[in-house]
Write a structure and sequence with these properties.
Elements: H1 2-98, H2 103-152
Helix pairs in contact: 1-2
Length: 153
Amino acid sequence: EDGCTLQGEYERLSLLRLRQEQARQEVQVQLMDLEQEVMRAQAASLAEDTAIAAQLATLREGLALRQKESQDRQQELTALREEYAHRQAAYQRALQSAGTAAQTAHADRQAGLREHEATLARTVEEGQRTVEAHRRLVEDLQSQLEGLQRQRV
């Protein structure tokens, strides 16, 4: 009777050990699967970070170019304003020195100046619109850049 009990106990323990070994192997396989999943996620994250960094670099280059263009337009506007002021001053000096003998010439010059003033005014307005458009574009690019930087974090 003790032999049967021992034999039964031995078989039960053997079965328990076998189940324990199977469970350990299953856990080992699950652990390996999880490690592979973590490595894939890390690789995907690295690829995404690289893509975002490339986008940021492109946006920074575009932003620098737009800022340079905006600065160039502003310099052109300043030069036009200075030219206008010089011409206006020259015109005033010419009027003062011309006297009564230059009434006819004065009328001709005044018409030309009005035409030139209108042209310069249109050019200045166009330049200001261009500068404003570049300013809005720069702000938009900066906003996109900040958005991408927040995404990256």
